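ARCHIVE CARD
Drawer: 12
Card no.: 0347
Subject: one protein chain, sequence and derived structure
Cross-reference: see card 0346
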Amino acid sequence: MKIDNLVGNGDFSGGFADWTLVGAIANATAINEEQNGFVRLGTDVSIYQDIKVTVQTQYAIRFRLRTPPDGNGIKVSIQGVSAEGVTSTLATEEFLEPSAEWMGHGLEAHSGQFSTMRLLFESTSAADMDDIAVFAI
């Protein structure tokens, strides 16, 4: 079964296309390592993407994360975005475990009354991310 990934450029093969950077944006880098594109977030930088979704639907968020031993991981938030641009947190989780290897992670969120969800990754130290997907379940 093919998954309908709602995230644009979730593998970062197009650099930061489809993503918005916030904070210390000089601390974010799109990298190609061994034929694999990914993003490296450093200190005090966030990256997000607004995704059109169906109201009252459950969604799964999947991604790969690699966190250096000196890093503090990453906080992932799923927010509903109103027509006026106001955000409300639907789900949040912190992934703090250091890992030199790529690890798969995920969480779920219900869209509620929102037709737009914001997928937000916040880094306070260092983390690499790749293969981001959002799909209805």
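Annotation on reverse: The longest strand covers residues 99-110. The chain has a mean pLDDT of 91.
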